[in-house]
Fold this protein.
Amino acid sequence: MSVTVVAIRMLLLIGLLLAWEVGARLANPLLYVPPTAVVPAVRELLALRSYPDLPAHLGLTVREIALAYALAVGAGLGIGFLLAMNRTFGRAWGPILAALYAVPAVVWYPSLMLFFGLDAASKIAFGFLLGFFPIALAVLAGIRQVNPQLVTVATAFGARPAAIFVKVLLPAMLFTLVGGLRTGLALSVVGVIVGEILGSRAGLGSLINHAYGLFRTADYVALVLLTLVLVVASDAGASLLERRARRWTA
Amino acid sequence: MTQLIAIERVAKRYLTSSGAVDALADVSLSVGDGEFCTIIGPSGCGKSTVLGMLGGLVQPDTGRVLIAGEAVTGPDPARVATVFQDPGLFPWRTALDNVAFGLELQGVPRERRRRIAGDLLGPLGLKDFAAKYPRELSGGMRQRVAIGRALAIDTRILLMDEPFGALDEQTRMLMGDWLLDIWRRTSKTVIFVTHSLQEALALSTRVVVMTARPGRVKTVLPLDLPYPRSMESVEVVSLRAKLWHEIRRESLRAMSEA
């Protein structure tokens, strides 16, 4: 990245923070929480003074995300490949899958809470639901993108189905597949946290809800920033995986 | 010359969404060991289907295809290597690793297959391009990588399906000379499909002219001429006229059907 881009980005960030500070002070500092009020709130949060049991809540949220994502990856890849390998089946189910994906997933959440209760299970289910679709659809889209000529070539050179899968299909669709896995992770994170905000007794989302409900706006913003860090960190992890995968195919 | 390939009365019909298409009807052909046999004919005459059958990618509806006396039942990379019109290089592999692909499938250890592939890049004129990816190569270079991939597994039979069809004329002529050189040094048996009279006359020991669909063998023309051949020599010019006479009517028929 060029120095100019970094410099411009820095200037933009500083400008935004300044505008936020000035705007919040001119309006209502309690509602708009200027950055100078957020900094002490973040310090309080990290020092475990505002929410002493933060580690337990954070731990729960991370575990929920991990489980939801693991399930989404397993089911997304499994069902995706099942539909992709079986043409008739895939053609029958593909549009249904795409239509379900188009429905705003949050409409399912009330029924998930009814099925799975107020605790972790409903959050995991929601994170799974959100993460599943982009992964399954990426598999379907990825397989469609594979140039059939490459499969013919591999067959002519004696490749068996397993070798065709590993040496042709996977690398050819990797870009799309990893993109889907990355989107799936982001959505699993969103699902779990939104689930917690919508109704829970524990987890990062429940803390956000608590701070917001009690009008502790500075604490609320600090928690949102923490969530942001969590999301960015998980996406950074995913992009690391993406680079690994690309090296593996080379 | 001993017979290596025998195609015995094969026929093939494809089912498409617009009905059945007879690609081949009763084709028989025998090719000797070490021959450079060119198949020429109008579009859609089933030339590629014949190659597909030799490569084990297409099964005939009737008749049989024999290589060294054994029926072909599937791809056999120990005996047959194919170069396709669309080179079909793996975009995520370097030129070197594309050439080594067949060896990799056969379980040749990494160091050894890279050495074999590396040694091939020199004569392919790709010495400095080992680490390049297909997108960084020109059309002619890509096709040479595809030929390298076929040569790397060192088969007795090399099938080439219009390998230079997508290249410009000058590149085509150079690639033809180069291929001729490879063929003469390795004494492989080459089955070469083309649209080009020029290529057929410059390269082959024998030209097989096929009819318009459904494809049959119309004429077999032996070319008993020394290499390298001058396209202006009296023999070649008269053979060219003869060949064109054979192909013209079939091409016209194919055109009026298309």
Summary: Chain A has a mean pLDDT of 88.
